[in-house]
Amino acid sequence: MLKKELRFKYKSLRKQLSEIDIEEMSLAICNQLLQLNIWDKNYFHIFLPIVEHQEVDTELILHLLSGKDKNILISKSHFETREMTHYLLTDGTKIKKNEYNIPEPVDGIEVPSSKIEVVFVPLLAFDQKGNRVGYGKGFYDKFLSECQSNTIKIGLSFFEAEDEIEDVFENDIRLDYCVTPKTIYQFNS
């Protein structure tokens, strides 16, 4: 399928999810993450979910990272440049929703992309090769291209993999893993 078709399909599927579905599937995804060989890393980037888009609730993952004493990074999006600035999440971090309902840090301690070792990537759909479909703005492809080549990229999805995304671009960055409530997909192995 084409990205445009996949966006429509998965936005529709997400709209059918209840709060309980989202809560239960987000918990299952968090539990699956414990099986990954990533816990020796220190700098973890995570997205805060856009509740209005029924995204994976990352609050439990935040608690998991905090409990393991990891450095947690969250981003602020700059729509003019399609760039993201990454901030260390601390007890004093103030979070505010931007005009697109994305929860973001107001300010804080900035950390360069090059320090990030693991990135949890939001997505609408993904395929068996690790290609992903986001909202189409290119923020994550740009951000992931700034990370080290060995940075671990983990997609989080309520739904299983599509066979193939037909219109993958040269600059699209593939995932290393995608975690669903039932399956851990590993790519690039």
Automatic annotation (TrEMBL):
In terms of superkingdom, the source organism counts as Bacteria
Biological source species:
Flavobacterium flavipallidum
**EC code:** 6.3.3.2
Which cofactors?
A: Mg(2+)
Name the reaction it catalyses: (6S)-5-formyl-5,6,7,8-tetrahydrofolate + ATP = (6R)-5,10-methenyltetrahydrofolate + ADP + phosphate
Family of the protein in this entry: Belongs to the 5-formyltetrahydrofolate cyclo-ligase family.
Residue ranges annotated as coiled coil are none
InterPro entries linked: FTHF_cligase, FTHF_cligase-like_sf, NagB/RpiA_transferase-like
- What is the name of this protein? 5-formyltetrahydrofolate cyclo-ligase
Identify the enzyme class. ligase
Alphabetic keyword roster:
ATP-binding, Ligase, Magnesium, Metal-binding, Nucleotide-binding
Report a single Gene Ontology molecular function: 5-formyltetrahydrofolate cyclo-ligase activity
Asked whether the keyword Cytoplasm is assigned, the reply is no
Residues annotated as transmembrane = none
